[in-house]
Amino acid sequence: MIESGLPGLSxxxxxxxxxxxxxxxxxxxxxDRYLEYLHKGxxxxxxxxxxxxGMRPRExxxxxxxxxxxxxxxxxxxxxxxxxxxxHLDHVPFWVDWGGMNPASxxxxxxxxxxxxxxxxxxxxxxYLATGNKPLAFSQALLNNxxxxxAVTTRFITEVFMPGSLRRHADGFKxxxxxxxxxxxxxxxxxxxxxxxxxxxxxxxxxxxxxGTIVFSLLVIDGMRRLGGRVSTRxxxxxxxxxxxxxxxxxxxxEMLYTxxxxxxxxxxxxxxxxxxxxxxxxxxxxxxxEAAPDYMKIExxxxxxxxxxxxxxxxxxxxxxxxxxxxxxxxxxxxxLCTAGITLAWIxxxxxxxxxxxxxxxxxxxxWIEQGDYEVR
Length: 378
Known about the structure:
globular
């Protein structure tokens, strides 16, 4: 398990000479390789975005969506960059095991509420640590419409865990390709602004994208366990397999695609030794995330909305630990007894599903989270 408050333990700033020297002393070549990947993007998607920029408005997107839905052979006179991208996407690596993804799908189908809560109060706060948060903070995309952005992310995560959803013509696969291109367009837009500091790496670089797959897989599992959930070794391996393949679809270099829980934790250890500290942007992003939750959940009562936000802060503090929560600017914990009761209830309902109250079953079913999501492949 990850120790609470692991990020930001170093007294030195992220990527400072002192921090790098300490990371090299602890991790050797792994620290140097991580530093290299901070400066690498996704050349296939980046080249295609550059090519689309020279075409008529919307022509590139039309070709992309046609290739996604109907295959690259259906596109008349496709640019070579589009062909190259789909040569990569249409290739299914040897290690992809469709049956091996089923335990993860079954786990999410049985109780989608637990991973959704883990994602919100445990995994995402880790994603918002510097310097990985800078593209979001730079673009203001999340801060300006947090509920909408969370709905998009929730829909994507829910879809990729649906059985068979990562096969070539399924929605999970299509969402992954669209997300990859969104990353490339955001990278180009940020770089074109001339305001990005390249000394710390590219926006949405390979190292940070690899860490992102850990947030959506292993950190969600860690959060589920802290919330009282039960995740077996087989289910963990299945979740990691799904996100390894998503990492491939995202264009992450094979060297950064972890093949086991141990490799994923090694990557986290290297990353946290070099960077990912809480900063002012982390505080703003976490505040926006938690305080947008009532809007996302469509809670109309002001009193219920305020109580929901307070409980989420308290629950997130409980999972993250006081050191990290304090540095994220969380209010001091209230409702400790309620958090304990909630975790105890989750523990019981995970092991005795027949005891689930009818009113709670709606939120546990995956259909609710699909309906809450907001994303179309078009």
